[in-house]
Amino acid sequence: MKRAMLIVAGATLVACTQGGGKSSSGTALQASCEALISAETGVQAADVNTVSTESVPTGTITTVEVAGAQAPWLCLADAAGVVIGVEYSQDG
Length: 92
What we know:
Distance between the termini: 20 Å
Largest sheet: 4 strands, antiparallel
Oligomer: single chain
Radius of gyration: 12 Å
Helix content: 25-40%
Strand order of the largest sheet: 1-2-3-4
Number of helices: 2
Shape: globular
Number of strands: 4
């Protein structure tokens, strides 16, 4: 549990410390999501790839494919671009 919280904090810091315009922060968010999901699943970073990022009223949802997974993972971020969690999109 502590490890997951540290990973979330680290991913958040990465997203916050990379400056730039809108596309740069979007890229930083996607990289943070991929790193967090890679750590959560134990799959190498090269096998974790962002499919899309969708704006929602509360922030963004980034859809991420993971090699070997039957369904994509979701990365949720608040309106400020801070990752607040990841989850597997399929029950089970």
